[in-house]
Design a protein that fits this description.
binds inosinic acid; binds magnesium ion; 23% helix; globular; alpha/beta
Length: 180
């Protein structure tokens, strides 16, 4: 079904569907009776976000944010720059940030700090994937779809050099692709 860029399918689309349904159920239960602003972090979480919001049975408002994250090999800091900001004020609101994957944890840690300054009523993170072995800073999502081993994955919104985001399954990238 896929070409040589895929080493193997790690999470088939049927499993993704059931993971997303369960996350939606849990979030709907935890925020029952409340309004929720659901924030898509572009581009990686766009597909997960679209599926997840349809499994959330609450009054939701959708918002979008683009961030760029500059790693610095030697320093332990990472500059997270807001490229496109939210269109709504989140002060006093329940906010759920939707991420594709937590890897070193640096992006989500900094993003949490940035958004917390705006004084939301509640700020939670949901991540489709989590690679706990790779963590460099202490941070966890509040909701996590699935923990995976330290392998580079593509599909379901996740890219390698902006490619493969449209794959329906979450796949392990073949090493040949990044070794060439
Ligand atoms: P962190 O700051 O190291 O946690 O980086 C998280 C970001 O790195 C994610 O939002 C992804 O854009 C990217 N990333 C980390 N691991 C992978 C992967 O296996 N496949 C695709 N993107 C990844
Ligand atoms: Mg990303």
């Amino acid at each position: 079904m896929y070409g040589r860029e895929v080493e193997k399918v790690l999470i088939p689309k049927e499993e993704i569907e059931s993971i997303v349904k369960n996350l939606g159920k849990q979030i709907s239960k935890d925020f029952a009776g409340e309004e929720l602003i659901v924030v898509c972090i572009l581009k990686g979480s766009c597909i997960f976000f679209s599926d997840l919001v349809r499994e959330i049975n609450l009054d939701v408002r959708l918002d979008f944010m683009t961030i760029s994250s500059y790693g610095n090999g030697t320093s332990s800091s990472r500059e997270v720059k807001i490229v496109k900001d939210l269109s709504e004020d989140i002060k006093g609101k329940n906010v759920l940030v939707v991420e594709d994957i937590i890897d070193s944890g640096r992006t989500i840690k900094r993003l949490k700090e940035l958004l917390a300054e705006r004084e939301p009523k509640c700020l939670k993170i949901v991540s489709m994937l989590d690679k706990p072995e790779r963590r460099e800073v202490e941070v966890d999502g509040d909701y996590c779809g699935k923990q995976i081993p330290d392998e580079f994955v593509i599909g379901y919104g996740l890219d390698y050099a902006q490619n493969y985001r449209n794959f329906k399954d979450i796949c392990v990238l073949a090493p040949a692709v990044y070794q060439k």
